[in-house]
Design brief:
By secondary structure, the chain is α+β, with helices and mostly antiparallel strands. It contains 7 helices and 4 strands. The termini are far apart.
Length: about 230
């Protein structure tokens, strides 16, 4: 039996979605965030040393990191290659795009989204009245000088891809789209949102209509706290 350790309102929803798309049975162990810090509870450290989600247990094997887990599930359980390109030829256009976007999601796309969240929390954090203008000035300067431009750079890059291709790896839906869903959902709720990104908005509409995604949300809960507000 596969076991997923899932944190509420987190990127680990992608692992549930992948399992639902593959039609695999799994046990769900769900963890609530700390109400004050919004961090994972200490119980998760008993599963993996970093104490973060998602974690997948497959027998005695314990895996962490969303991309690594999706890659493992594709190689181990997607025998028909419904959600992943054939491993050979390794340099096929679909395989190359699949590999790139599967790793890009966390390696490049998420840092600007995370920094947007951090700046928002600094700007809105409770603090003495005399400190608020200083904190907000720091957050605003970081947003204007670095975070905002980086966020827009990456959103433009994603928009360009989906304006030219229906899915990130090419013509069909794959695990790369599952992996890319979280940074795009995060972007939709932070900063300037996706007001000028019709291809990304269309992507979100398409994935949210997938029965596998809807089953994952029904089991693991929706992403209700992406904005951090």
């Amino acid at each position: 039996m596969l076991t997923v350790h899932h944190l509420d309102n987190s990127r680990s929803l992608r692992v549930l979605w992948m399992l639902e798309e593959l039609g695999l049975a799994y046990e769900l162990k769900q963890y609530a965030r700390d109400a004050k810090t919004m961090l994972a509870p200490p119980e998760l450290r008993q599963v993996h040393g970093l104490g973060k989600a998602p974690v997948l247990q497959d027998g005695t094997r314990v895996l962490a990191e969303s991309g690594a887990i999706l890659d493992y599930l594709a190689d181990s359980y997607d025998s028909e290659r419904v959600l992943s390109p054939a491993p050979l030829p390794a340099a096929s256009d679909e395989r190359m795009a699949y590999r790139y976007w599967l790793h890009y999601a966390e390696g490049s796309a998420m840092p600007p989204m995370l920094l947007t969240l951090v700046m928002s929390r600094i700007r809105n954090a409770p603090m003495p009245f005399f400190a608020k203008p200083i904190a907000r000035a720091i957050a605003d300067k970081a947003e204007k000088g670095f975070v905002g431009p980086q966020r827009r750079l990456h959103l433009d890059w994603m928009e360009q891809r989906l304006a030219a291709s229906p899915w990130f790896a090419g013509k069909r839906f794959t695990a790369a789209d599952i992996q890319m869903s979280f940074p795009i959902q995060a972007a939709a709720s932070r900063g300037d949102g996706l007001a000028d990104k019709p291809a990304l908005r269309g992507f979100l509409q398409r994935i949210e209509q997938r029965p596998g995604y809807q089953r994952a949300v029904a089991r693991g809960g929706s992403l209700e706290a992406l904005s951090g507000r």
